[in-house]
Every structure is written in structure tokens, then in C-alpha cells.
Give the backbone structure.
Amino acid sequence: MGTFSGNPVPKPDGGLVPIPILPPPTIPSEEDIRLVMQSDLQRALKKPMGERQWGMSIDLQRCTGCQACTLACINENKLPPGVVYRPVLENDSGTFPNVTKQFLPRPCMQCANPPCVPVCPVGATYKRPDGIVEIDYDVCIGCRYCITACPYSARTFDWGEFYGDLVDGPPTPYEQVPSLEYGHVWLRKAGTSPINNTRKCQFCIERVQRGELPACVRTCFALATYFGDLNDPEALVNRVRQGRQVMQLKADMGTNPSVYYLL
Amino acid sequence: MKEITRRKFLVASTATVGALSFWELGHYALAASKSNVTDGSPQSAVLGKERVIYTADAFCASECGLQVTTYNGVISTIYGNPHVPYNAGTTCAKGVSGKQVVYSPYRLKYPMIRVGARGEGKFRRASWEEVSRYIATKLEAIKQQYGPETVIMDGGDMTDQPPYWRLFYYFGSPNCTQHGAICDTPRRLGPYIIEGGLRIEPDLMRPVLVRQPDGSLKNDYSYANKMIIYVGWNPFTATRINYESRGTVAAKQNGAKVVVVDPAFSNTAAQADWWLPIRPGTDADLFATMLRYILTNNNPQDPERQYLDPRFQDYSVGWPEFETAFRSWWTKSDPINNLPYFSLQWAQERTGLAAQDIATLAHEFGSKKPAALVWGMNGTGHHFNGEVVSTLGTVLNVITGNFDARGGAIDTALVRSNKGGNGGSKQIKSQMITRTVNGKTIKGLAWDLEMDNNGAWPAAFWGALGAYPKQMSEGVQINYGPFAGYHYPIKAFFVRGGNPANSASTEQRWAEVLSAKDGSGDYQIPLTVYVDNAYLETGLYADVILPEASFMERMGLSDIYPSEPVMYLREPVVPPQFEAKNQVEIMNILAKALHDAGDPDIQGADFWDRYHSEEDFWNEALLEAPGRTNVGEPLPYPRYPVGYKLLGTPESLEKGQVSIDHTKKIVQGVPLTVAWLRDHHGVAVWPMAWERYKAPSGGIIATKSGKFEFHFGFLDAVNKYIANRPVPYMLNQVGWTRYPTTFFWYETVWNPYTNPAYTQYRTQYPFQLISGRIHQSMSATQYVDWLGRISEEHLWMPLNDAKTFHPVVTTGQGGEKIAGIHHLRQGAWSIAVIQMNPVDGQRLGLRTGDLVRLVNPLKQETKGKVFLSELIRPGVLRVPPGSGGRLTPGMGQTYEYRSITPSSNRLLDPNLSSPITGMSTFNDMVVKVIKI
């Protein structure tokens, strides 16, 4: 009986999560894009950390506004009520019947020049060699300067709410499952990090380092989000930008985001 | 977190200066205290406690394959199973939210027995032993006094109801139904009568497993589609067919033209090439006009106008009859506009679309091949005349050669895997019974007492759940078959995983019949049982509540919408919470109790001695998988004879581990089992093919003739069955005495623009009220916190007022507990709203957030807040179905807003159901708007 037991998650031990084996594609170039991206990851992870730059390409022609990414991210990162890392913004314009509607998934841009970093008074947030803008929850004092500084509203504050609070109960069972942000074990408890810290998307770097795709990319219902090493011209995340109109959000601010939108 | 507070820091903030100089100097990167970030894996201790389980969703009937991770036995993450091609590793927002179903504080935890009046929602906790004895005693008394047929079993909105059906079919009731009987039956009629299927969808599932010329099997990721037309169908938001999200945008990028026909600019419309904002309830007008245009302008000599693919006639019967009947309307003029039927000008007047646009749409559909014309449950399944729409839509797909073409239109019901027959229908269809009818003793099958097909709905091939309140209050009059003349009351209602009291037709009617009393003060229906993990409105009317295992806690099989046979396992991920039990356990417990109460029809050999675990039950179901024939291009198994039925694991069929029965035309491989699925990432996939109806013997078409029937053999047979007997009452409504056997036409109801009977309401009730299905905020969804918060399509929006309230949860003490005080901030919770065009809002002096009453000509009303939006046709109001006016505390925070959220189901006409299928007319109503 396999009931409830399942299979153990492969232990990392420096190794990577195996890529699922599917039947071969009829045309090699048309393989399952998640498998392609996973092998891109494996290639990137073999390089020294400073030689890879994690980035995303989000195809706005494909996004269907389903918000699965928003919730998969909440699920993966064990986010409390009110904390959202990757909302999907919506905008409609025009008057009936000449109307349009755009969806804009908004992760952290992992800027090359992140305005959130220099305003941190204690150096709790910094740019990693692999391009991720990290928050060290153990150092963060919760001043929220960075929240104001981020031009993308990508940072939110963890006020210490629990889903159990909604019914005056203890934290729900799933709130007793730790998150593994930045490769550390974080179990939210009153008075300890990451409660009273600023929080934001980190491209699920803990998953990425195991060879798994970020939660949003993994779940994307319309296969609209690509992820990989921006330094690798062969990586799908870069190839999909070829021949497309590409936009970075608020490019004029000089932040140089690692997130590209395909129009 | 460092032990320094923000206040302390602000007092002595030298560090701020430092940070500013960093900014000015441009040292953005690596400002950190931790420059020693490495690739280490410090979380390995945690990973050791994690488990991965492949399972299948059942939070909706789409049932995606899932890959769930647990940590210390608690659900941690939920992703799509990449090995299931149906969803190919993706999941929607709802699928991701499953753990908030399992661990919901509002879920039903213990068996309970009602202590208040029905509808009050007062219960006490009871044991499984007590409730099963209670149910069995009552059921046996009902069976003795009134007969087993007086019990209705509604298996609800999931495909794993067979254990319940088995129990009640063996008990002797033919009246087992499920959600399909209220979902969208008019949408399915056309496919059913023409080709024997149910749902036509575009060929968009990728990957599909395809046999290659070299004999190997490979995954095909390519899209051949040239045109996709979604009519009243919004797959991106009303997600049911998973692959239509990723497939539509991918096919479009590959050059397919995507058109959305919908009064609202839906999310699907947002990514379409063309949006046609049609007037509600005129889809049939559009389709009929497209068909007339195609028949008129088809020219085999002109490559631009080769609309028809004449080869369809080789595989069909009755086309000349259909075409003649259709053309006969062209010379008649419509009393409402004096224009000839189905002409472009006529359609412009009725649909509100430009005649030229309709001509372009017809031309492009006819000439851009492969194409798919797809109609949905909202737009067509929920209109009185949806039966006309689905019939014309099927015709259009077939005559243009798009049916089962690569890149064309696939009827998924004809190609999915089979999952067996242990639901007990063989039993009920073979059991002989006697009844006294008009003083005479009559013998017949128990099945001949089935309430719909022998009662008011002889052609409702999927049942007529929306019409149940009528039968519940008046009793079932058997008009046809051996027991014609027999009348029986409804005495028990057993509902599982469904919420008819909120969403299966006029909700007041359900409340009325479920709480109606007889002359002596007893309930007219002496037993109501509600089985679910969610505490929904129907539960308020239950005598007994049974807590069912959620879909993460029970086993089942999923197979429903793929375009090739795929079967995947719902594997229990965690043990049932509290005292919940799975369906097989509940079946066995109730079976044992009925047996102990003296029921001779319930024996251990058919239940508890036969199925020791749920795995036993589903293994038996798997014996019939995939159950499809070896047909199509490319042939799935060239090594086996064409047209033979395939049974067994993909592995055994591939390796030739089979026995072939040439008499029965069966290729029998090694039977598929739960254990096999478990060893193969939870899924079995058999090869795809196209043109699967063209096999000389044993194609996929499931009509009696095995061909496309434009002379409807099914309805012909029903007419013979009802000959010389009373005319079903709804046929009179459309002026028929018999079911139509070829092209038919009738107007929808409550539409002042197309039906002369309703033009009088145009001025006083100027709005057409329709519903817009949102997958993630449906009848049984909003108690999930994440789904309650996210907004959608100007229908489910964060317009909540700030509110302080006492949440209600069920507890071990039974009944309910007021759980403290909770404060909800304004704008923190999405609620059902009324979408209205700003032009209409301005005229009525309304702004977004204003509370209004919607009143219909039947003097029924509902309240809600207006949301002004350019994304809706003026004159049309749209609300999410089943999302407002929620009366059960089981809905969590949504319950707190019940008095300011609209319920369109209060306003629909209780006396009308689609004439052939018996479907409620959810989307046909007019209202006026009164500001509060």
C-alpha cells in the first residue's frame, strides 16, 4: 500500500532533483518547455555562482490572468494572510466595445540596481552574486524603508497574522510547515523571523538551487513564464525574447530589472 | 530578526546616512553583511520528512493530475503532475488551494443529527453508528411503505460517485443522479443526438501521445488549429477544460485566429483576436445564420468558398432531410422584425452584431481549416433554447469536416477512457419488480420507474435535476413504459458533494420543498441526508450530515476531458481529518446498517465482503480501461485489428502481452490496477489518433446507427416510447406534440428582443440578467481564504465593507461554536457584485459600490453592489452564479456579506425548463434596477 507514504523527496546532497522523463517529442525543438528549462537550470548550476544571473521572461500574450502563480507562490513560501509576492495586476482601458485588458504578473524584479538595497539601514538586503536580491531575516529590523523605496511595490510586510486567527484558533496545520526561503528553515512563530520582517519574491531560490523551477513557473496555467540564467544565450528564458517586443518595468529609472515582459 | 525595534532605530539612525551614501555612490550590489552566499543545502533535514504523492484534484470536475508534497504528514505544496498530459504539470488557482479545503476550519468534521427545524442549521454531534442506524431505519420504513424508488440519490459534482449509486441501485431506487443533470444539458444535446457524445472542444490538448511511422510512440506538442470560436465560453476564467488555457494562447501564437462571442469582455476575450459582444440568448440566431450563409455561399469550385467537406455524407444519415427542414425556414418571416429567418439582416436585428461581422465569421469558419466552433455552459447550457444552439453547432463542425480532424473539434466524451460499471446500474436494469397500477398488478424492471425518462422528461438523457422541486412537491407521475399510470411521492433525498438548494434552479423553490410539511406537521420528505466536507446551503436542510473525506483524503479515478484516453489515480494524500470517511467506507457502513435493518437486497457479497478497501472498488472499475477501439489516424496499435476494443495497461498493449478475442473483437492486455498507476507516476496514457469516426467498423460515433444522425434516431425512439401517451408538459410550451427528429427551432424565454411573448417587458425591465461563471468563486469555493481574496472579471471584487463578526465553526461538542471576534478590513475580501456598463450606471445615477435591488417581472428580487465596467454590453447585467446571498456559515467570510451580494438563482423562472433536457433557464431573465 502506497497510501499516505508516497516517495521520499530526493535528498539534495549537492545533487539536483531529477528531471521528469516523458515520452520523446516528435520534433526535438518542441519539447515540454518545463523540461527544457529544468535542463537549463542544471547547466547554470554547474557554473560558479557569480557567473549566473537568474531572470524571468513573462509572455504577456500568453498570460490568461488566472492567478495560479499568485497562489502557488503563497503555497510554496507559506505566506501569511496579507503577504503576496507575485500578484497579477490587471488593467482595462477603452470604452465599450473598443476595450482591452492586460494582465501583468509582478514578481520581484531582482533589479541589477535595486533601490531597496541602499536604503536598508542595517544591510539586511543585498544583491547576491547570482542576481537575487536577498533579505536576511535575521538582520532585518522591520523598518520598512525598503518597502517605500521599491518602485514596483514588490515588498510587503509580515505583520504576524495567521490563517488560524480568522476563527480565533491556533495556526492551521499547514502554517506549521516551514518555508525554506533562501535555503534556511523558517517556521513562523510570534516574535521570531520572518514575522515583523519585510518579505518579497526571491525566485524560489531554494527550489532553483535544487534544480526545480520557481513555483510560479512550475504552475503557470498558460505556460507564460520562463525562467533561467540570463547569462546563458542557449537558455529558453533568453531564446523566447528573440523577435519579440520586450519591456522592462520602469526601465527609465535605471533599475535594470531581471524580469522581461514580452509584449 | 534583530533585537532592535523600528522606534529605537529611528532615534539613532546613523546607519541611514550610510545607506544614503551607498545609494549616491551607486554601490547597489553586494552591500551586504552576507557576501558569502553559497549553493549549500541547509534544508536537507527538512527534506527528509517530505513525501511526494501523485494524485488527482476533485475540487472541480476538471480533475487535474497533481503532485503533492507533504511534510510530517501535512500538505505542503501542490503542483500539477507533469506526467499527466491533460494538465501537463500546470494547475489553476483553485487546484493550488487544495490544502485550504482539507484544513478549512469551516469543514464538516463529525456526523451530525438535526435538532432545529430544517433550514435553521442546528445540529448535534452523533456517532457513525448512530447516524447509520438512523438512516437505515428511516430508509427501510420508506421502502416498506412507499417503495425504494421514492428515494433520490444525487451524487453531486464529482465523477467518483459510483459507490453511492451502487448502494442505492442495489437498494432498489432507479433515481440516482449527479451534477451533470443540472450543469449544462442543453449544451450537450446536439452532440448527443447527432454523434452520441457530450462536449465538443478544440483539439488543444498537448502533448498527445502519437504513433510514429517508425512504430515508436512520441509526444506531439504541435498545434494545427487555424481557427477557434468560443461562444458563451470563457475557458480562462470558467476553467473546466484545463488545456484550453495553455492551448488557446499557444495555438494563437502559432497562427490560429481566436474569436470570443460573449456579451462580456471575458479574460478569454482579452487574449482573443476578435470579440463579438452578442446580445444574451441569441447564440442560436448566430449559428443558424452562419449555417445559412455557409449553405448559400458554399462553392466547391472556388477555393475561397469550399466551406462544406462533402465527405461527411459518407458517415451520416438524414442530411437531406435536415437541410430541407432548415431551408424551409428561409422564406418565413419572423413576427418580431418581419425579416426572413436566418438572413444576415435578421441576425443583426436580433444579436446586436453587425451583419457584415456575422458574414465574416461564417466565411472564416468555413474557410480556415482546421477550425473548432465551441459553445459553453454559460452561454448555451443555461439558456432555454441552448438545445437549438448545440444542435446547430454540432452540425457546423461536422459539415465543414472539422469533427475529430487534427486541429479541429473533438468530442471528448467519445474518446476518453472508460472507468467501469460497478456503480450498480446493471443491477437496477435487470431487477424485476411488481407494482399495482390502476388496480392491476404490473411487472417490469425497477429501472422502468426512473422518474425523469418515464415521467415528465422522457428525452432528458442526463436527468432533469432542475425540475426536481416540482416532482418533490407533486410526486412522480409515471407516464411511459410498463408502469404508465403509476404515481409515487419523493420520500428521501440523499445528496453528496452537491448544493442544489443554492444552485440547481430557483433557490426559494428548493427551500420550500425541502422544508414543506404535510397535514400532520411532518416533513413531506421524511429523510434528507447531506454528505460533503463543505457545509453548504443544502446541508442546512439535512436531517443527517455525514462528513466525507475531501479529495486529498480519498481514492478515485480521473479521466474526464482529455482528447486521448488517459486514466489517472486520485491517491489519498493524508488520512481523513476528524471523523470524515471516504465514499467506499460510507457505502459499506450504510450497506451494513441497511442489511442489519432487514433489507434483503443488500448483501455483504455485493458490498463489505466484496470491497475491503477503496482500492478494491477502484481496481474493479479499472478492469474496463481504456475500453476504446483501435481506430483513427495514425492507428494507435497497428499490430492489432482495426475496430477492436482495447483493454489493459498501456505497457501490456505496447508489448503485446494480450489475448485477442475475435468473436467479441476485444484485445485484452494486463488489466490496469491502482498499484500499476501508483508505480507509473499515477497515470496511464494510451495513444491519440484523429478521424476516429471513419473506421469501417467500430468508429467512435455512439449513435445507434454508428453514423452522424441528422435524423435524430434517439428522439425518434423517444417519440415511439411516448406514443399514445400524454405529451410531456414542457413540449406544450413550445407548441410541440412530439420531439423533433430533424432541424428544429424555438425561441428562448424572457428575451424581449427575440420572443414576441416578452416584448412587453422591454421598457419596464430594461436589463437582461446573465451569470458569468468564475471557476474559483463558485458555490463551494469561497470558504477557501485564498480564493475568497483574489478578484476576478468585475464579478468577484473586493467591495466588502469593514466588518466585525463572530465566525462560526463546527466543533467536537457538535453543532457550532462562535469563534471569537474577527475584524475584516474594507477591501480585503472579494464579494459577488453586479457588473454594469457605465452608460447604464450614469443613466441611473449609480456608481461603483452602490447597493441596488434587482427586481424581475415575477416580483422576485435580490440585492447587490454595482460594479461599473466598460467590459460588458450595455443593457446587460452580469453576476457570478451561486456566489452571492450565501446562507450558510460554512462559507466563512463570504457568509458575512450575504445581505449585500446578489443571487441570480432567486430570479429565474421556476416554471420553465428547456423542453428536451429539462434544464433550468439560468440565463434568461429581465430585471429593473432600483437604487437603495
